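Please fill in the sequence for the structure shown.

STRUCTURE ENCODING:
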């Protein structure tokens, strides 16, 4: 059997749930496919302190549950399936899930987000969110007067390192080679910053820490010299993996316009994609800011765009 909805939102997180809230308040039938990471990236973070309205901070998973409840209050429905196949060549749009279910929609909002690239060294999965992060803007504040490391050699790593010097007592950039991919101006800026030093020809072999009464905390890293094989144990309060993000756009390749890195391209300041009736919001189309609050803003915009577009179609 085929299940039809006015608006189908692919992906959750701040963008997807905000789109659902606005669509619901406009009395538009909508469902949210929460995918393989319900609630999005914030569900694997700890405390969120930079989202307006939470002066004392809030845990990421708790925040996403609040978003979900608010969306449901206005009639949205969560479907805990992953969309694996689409056909946007005709209307209504066709979608299939990982449970072999078939859905159709008059309009689509894509909020599948982006995934931080990981190295998956030993201990990384265990301490991710407990001393290991992929976003200095999100978590740098928590490392005041502490020693942190940044892994990477591109502009992202150097931007993160410079930003972290506002809080940390010292920042060490770990890179597997002597040469960097970062632009010359970023490299010079880092080299001229007295808080930044470098650990080259090196990779993190293992993350170490402690676990007490169910609480985990990173305390150190084992670094391997790729030329000599020598491993050195170093104390660490925090590690930021800065090797880029991968937008979750695999199923849209060849269908929706993307940039060279796979991010969906939207028209001007709108959330319109190259296919009428298909909109994109959140990190899947934003490689610049990647913040919960900006994602929520574009989620709002996508619902308004979809509502107006449907009205133009006499729907």
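FILLED IN BY: designer on duty
SEQUENCE:
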């Amino acid at each position: 059997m085929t299940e039809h909805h006015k608006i189908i939102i692919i992906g959750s997180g701040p963008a997807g749930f905000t789109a659902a809230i606005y669509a619901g308040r406009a009395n538009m039938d909508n469902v949210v496919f929460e995918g393989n990471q319900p609630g999005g990236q914030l569900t694997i973070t700890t405390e969120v302190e930079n989202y307006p309205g939470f002066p004392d901070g809030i845990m990421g998973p708790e925040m996403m549950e609040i978003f979900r409840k608010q969306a449901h209050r206005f009639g949205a429905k969560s479907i805990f399936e992953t969309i694996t196949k689409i056909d946007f060549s005709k209307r209504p749009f066709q979608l299939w899930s990982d449970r072999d279910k078939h859905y159709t929609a008059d309009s689509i909002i894509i909020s599948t987000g982006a995934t931080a690239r990981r190295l998956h060294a030993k201990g990384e999965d265990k301490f991710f969110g407990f001393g290991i992060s992929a976003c200095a803007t999100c978590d740098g504040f928590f490392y005041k007067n502490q020693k942190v490391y940044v892994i990477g050699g591109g502009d992202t790593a150097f931007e993160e390192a410079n930003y972290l010097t506002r809080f940390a007592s010292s920042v060490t950039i770990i890179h597997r080679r002597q040469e960097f991919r970062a632009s010359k101006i970023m490299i010079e800026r880092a080299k001229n910053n007295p808080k930044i030093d470098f650990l080259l020809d090196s990779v993190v072999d293992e993350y170490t820490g402690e676990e007490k009464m169910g609480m985990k905390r990173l305390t150190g890293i084992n670094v391997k010299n790729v030329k000599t094989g020598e491993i050195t144990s170093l104390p660490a309060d925090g590690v930021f993996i800065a090797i880029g993000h991968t937008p979750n756009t695999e199923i849209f390749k060849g269908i929706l316009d993307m940039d060279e890195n796979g991010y969906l391209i939207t028209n001007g300041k709108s959330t319109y994609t190259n296919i009428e009736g298909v909109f994109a919001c959140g990190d899947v189309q934003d490689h610049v800011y990647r913040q919960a609050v900006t994602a929520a803003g574009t989620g709002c915009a996508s619902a308004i765009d979809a509502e107006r577009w449907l009205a133009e179609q006499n729907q």
